[in-house]
Write a structure and sequence with these properties.
Radius of gyration: 25 Å
Distance between the termini: 51 Å
Number of domains: 3
Largest sheet: 9 strands, antiparallel
Number of strands: 9
Order of helices and strands: HHHHHHEEEEEEEEEHHH
């Protein structure tokens, strides 16, 4: 067999392997945010009827096309995302195989797999699980020791040191951004009609906050213990008690509220309702999961990639944010996850980042 045939065979193997890995990534994307094991049950199952899918109906790419995106047992729709993740993973594995030396193939396959899981979970749930962030950072350190070429050195211990520097620099940089952003933009006044009805209703360990027609889960509002939500009330009542009409600004923390009678623990309250004229909500510059995520990126790619990734992700996120504003689709509770842009920025670095930097340097540096 000539070398060209070998190249085609190995390229096809990389794509097929990637699509198979993508099938497992779909399991991670669905189960991890729900706290379900990715190992038990071992077979994939339909989220609607819980039917465990046999292997011959769980072939990457082909099964989704053959079943026309529906469960073979109950007929429920299987989201296109399952096919997309398998396709993207196959293409990612193929691109890495064609672009990089062997020392980079396995680490970059793992890293791009982490990026795909983080991206789709962040889009759906606005979180990046610790298994991806802290687990990715540990994996990056280990792989840098096994494959020191990742850090452009022949010494395993030097590579481990540079990997650790990359992780620490990424974590420290975004942590500083989060803290400074909290000081500058830690609260936001929400435009609201006067005398808008509100209600806070407990549901088990969590609660719902309803303002007019908008409803938000209580736990999604607060990121840290010091966060405060302020409702400027016209009147309110607690657990169907006496109506207060003092014009008091109710100051909520996640687990307590300040009332005219004093501070009360929310665990002992079932419902607060009334009318509001103003709302001030807490907000973060970005989630702490993004801070841990950039640490994982730094552990795999080094400190140069960290700063390129943060810069490019900020540019990409800004374009998307401007587009959302122009389309007038933003609501007061809307969030824009930053993790997918970090993943995309790091991917750009992997494939063309150093060349982009070289081009930019030559552009801005006077030529003599």
């Amino acid at each position: 067999m000539n070398p060209a045939c070998f190249e085609i065979v190995f390229a096809a193997f990389a794509f097929v392997l990637g699509s198979i890995v993508g099938s497992f990534l779909n399991v991670c994307i669905y189960r991890m945010p729900l706290g379900l094991s990715v190992n038990e049950p071992r077979r994939s199952f339909c989220p609607h009827c819980k039917y465990q899918i046999p292997w011959f109906r769980n072939l990457p790419l082909f099964s989704w096309l053959d079943l026309r995106g529906r469960c073979a047992n109950c007929g429920a729709t299987i989201p296109f995302r399952y096919f997309l993740v398998e396709l993207l993973t196959g293409l990612a594995f193929l691109a890495v195989w064609l672009r990089f030396p062997l020392d980079f193939v396995i680490p970059f396959w793992i890293l791009l797999s982490l990026f795909l899981v983080a991206t789709f979970i962040d889009f759906d749930h606005f979180i990046i699980p610790d298994e991806i962030t802290w687990g990715g950072a540990v994996c990056g350190l280990l792989l840098s020791w096994i494959f020191p070429a990742l850090m452009e050195t022949d010494s395993r211990w030097v590579a481990l040191l540079w990997s650790a520097i990359g992780a620490v620099s990424g974590f420290a940089t975004l942590f500083a951004v989060v803290e400074l952003g909290k000081l500058a933009f830690g609260k936001k006044r929400i435009p609201i009609e006067p005398d808008t009805a509100f209600s806070w209703t407990r549901h088990g360990e969590d609660a719902d906050l309803r303002l007019g027609e908008e409803s938000t889960q209580w736990s999604e509002i607060f990121s840290r213990e010091s966060d405060r939500l302020i409702l400027e009330t016209k009147e309110f009542s607690v657990d169907d008690g006496a109506v207060n009409s003092t014009g008091l600004a109710l100051e909520f923390h996640f687990n307590r509220v300040r009332l005219p009678s004093g501070e009360r623990n929310l665990d002992g309250i079932g419902r607060i309702e009334g009318k509001v004229s103003g709302v001030v909500i807490p907000r973060e510059a970005m989630g702490f999961g993004d801070v841990k995520f950039i640490a994982a990126i730094g552990a795999f790619l080094g400190w140069k990639a960290v700063f390129f990734t943060i810069f490019s992700a900020s540019i990409l996120g800004s374009f998307v944010g401007i587009a959302v504003l122009l389309m007038r689709r933003r609501e007061w509770s809307a969030k824009i996850p930053f993790g997918p842009y970090l993943a995309l920025g790091a991917t750009i670095w992997m494939f063309v980042g150093p060349r982009l930097l070289e081009w930019y340097w030559n552009l801005v540096t006077p030529q003599f």
